[in-house]
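Case study B.
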Amino acid sequence: MNLARLAWTNLLRRPFRTVFTVAGVAAAVACFIALTGLVRGLERAWTDNLQRRGVDVIAVRRGAAELLAASFEAHTADQVRALPGVRDVAGELLRLVETVDGTEFDGGLLLVAGWSLDGYLGRQLRLQDGTAVTALAPEQALIGPMLAAGDAYRVGGDIRLLNRRFEVAGVLQPAGVMMSHAVIIPLSAMQRLIDLPGRINVLNIALEPEPNAWPALRPRLEREFPDLRFMPTDRVAQDVRLIRLWRGLAWGVSSLALVTGLVVVWNTMLMVVTERTREIGVLAAVGWPVRRITALLTLETLLVVTGGFGLGVLAGQGALFGLGRMPALRGFLDPAWSAAAGMEVGAVALGFALLGTLYPVRRAARLDPVAALRQE
Amino acid sequence: MPSAPVLALEQVSRSYDRGRVRALDHVDLMITHGERVAVIGPSGSGKSTLLHVLSGLDHTDSGVVRFCGRVPDGRDAWTRLRATHIGFVFQAFHLLPTLSALENVQVPMLGVIRDAGERRLRAQDLLARVGLTARAAHRPAELSSGEKQRVAIARALANRPDVLLCDEPTGNLDSANGRAIVDLLMELNRDNGMTVVTVTHNPDVAARSDRVYAMRDGRLAKVAEGGA
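Model:
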């Protein structure tokens, strides 16, 4: 028997208390990991989607809190394309559309994109099934592979968008989580569908492959297009206000969950120490110094928090996986576990738990042994 | 020539409840190596406080407590003494409920004996000595009162102390178990030369001690010398 074994034995032989304390920590950590993972997944899905298309910078309407809601003239794409340092530009009109068609996707959200299919984005599209992209007729649509995976939609069949029928002309090859659940229709058809003729809401800009292309181009873009906001793709997830709002919300809620879990640990450890005051007195009576008694009880906390953290990570990842498959979220995020964030939350949990344990433990360990032995 | 005192109290007083209860009142006591000392007296007379003060489990209000001629310097020094030189046996056993008998005996050895194997072997030897080899894996709740007290004695002997302080070690036992415990204490004194100080109501313990003191209202008086 050694100190670690003794701590382990103490926990095992008080199974109910140990299990519930571990569960409290695990629930808090799982909540933290699931919520922050969701937001990280959203950010990753956005960034991944843009980078796969070879987009270096996007432009949206300046001041629009919800960037899909604000549009601008489609010919802006030609003006930007003419600037030095710009390799190509593709305008895009995006909308989130609810599916109301009685299929397995009914009630879910679809990202519908209107593209100029002869532009540089359209040229990159690869189909696993269906017609040639450039031959897409105005009432035809391309769908993401996840939409085609079920029985709801197939090439030659229909898909209803805003109560308008489109024929499924092709299925996209897998290319990131967002595109796997997206629908692409010709830009002109999209403009008609949502009554925004001649308008787009996102510009996808590919820069010349020069090291200083963006710093050189940025001032001119901002000067010549003051109504637009330009964001490099690796900054989009951080800059979009909606994602920032989600991130703040997720951190707030998950931090509250974490604090609640830690208060549970504090409370439990306080109870443990109070209940075990006589035991602490016995240890002092047989010659254990304060530091060894403190080490034993701290080790028990450490084991509880570590166990809770491990279970919390697993449960959090499970929750993340489950949430990522919910109809309302499917296709908009790529649930992402971050080891660094996990370590951070582990360190925070451990630090707080130890802090909350040390005070009652030190106080009990410093009691006169006789006073401690008298405790019931 | 008398041998040097292992424990000595000089004018020691200790009171509780803001001085209203005087547990020890200017007590002088000298205990030499290898002695068997019994302290008798009615409940509440201060016997347990005497043992607590002798072991550093409790502090004094005034007076001096010496161990082998020296005054231990504070709580940590007393803790070290209890770890290696002073064993304590409680009337209420005070075994750790989550640990087996074997583990309970090993508890004082942690931090004193580095090798885990040696700790285990010694604990097994001590349990064999108190006749509990077969009960080594049992937890306190699974042991009888007599067995618990024998585990408590084995635990008190874990680090081969010079002095064994026993607070009514037979108080919670029937007469047969009580007699066995007293035999064990006498055997430890005889075979190991261990100093044994026992607070007791048991006349058998008193009869088999070298010196017997009586406590009344916190005052100590010698009543007999030169026992069995």
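The mean pLDDT of chain B is 88. The remaining cases will be described in the next quarterly update.
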